[in-house]
Amino acid sequence: MRIRRGTDVDLARVNRAVADLDVPDAVWKTCPWQPRSLIETGLRQWLRCAGAALRDGQVIGMPSNAVDEAWHGLILCTSRYAQFCEAAYGRFLHHHPEGGAPPEVAAASGGMADQLGRTVVAWSMVAQPGESCVLWDLDDHVGVDAPWGVPADRVAAVRAELAARHDREATGQ
Q: Among candidates 104, 110, 114, which has minimal Cα distance to 157?
């Protein structure tokens, strides 16, 4: 089972809305790590990944504790967050913390390892040429005591599977 596919989600619109997002100082009240610029880059990358996931009816996992805290701070700016979601996705992007998702979302999302794998896939859809993803090991760089992340070998394995799938599709196999 998948979540409702968001055929109305246009990734170009998502990119514009993310680029135009003014991240208010209030976001940083619960996100003490530095440098903020790196965490903000991660937040923007996450919001772009979320657009790809919404478009494709997928649930993705959050790879960074620091970015998660920044996202929480943005969500608490309710009016600004709602306006951003409407501009980016055409609807509200809900936050479903582990153990807090409605039953239909929880049933469709699988475990965190699967969700993080789908985040790597989502990144492959939104990354600009030559752009590196900071999400996979951001927590290590900003000094989070209990860092989250996606190990480099897992990112490489997902990318290899995507490449193999692309090759199979290109050859009609």
A: 114
Q: Are 115 and 13 a contacting pair, CB within 8 Å?
A: no
**Gap between the Cα atoms of 7 and 125, Å rounded:** 15
Rounded Cα–Cα distance for residues 59 and 11 (Å): 16
Q: Are 11 and 126 in contact (CB under 8 A)?
A: yes
Asked whether the whole model's pTM tops 0.85, one would answer yes
Tell me the C-alpha distance between 132 and 10, whole Å. Answer: 22
Integer CA distances (angstroms), 100 to 37, 52, 77, 95, 106, in order: 29, 22, 20, 9, 8
Q: What backbone phi and psi angles, to 5 degrees, belong to 35?
A: -85, 140
Length of the chain: 173
pLDDT tens digits, residue range 154-170?
999 999 999 888 888 88
**Sign (positive or negative) of CA dihedral 108, 82, 13, 35:** negative
pLDDT in tens, 37-96: 999 999 999 999 999 999 998 989 999 999 999 999 999 999 999 999 999 999 999 886
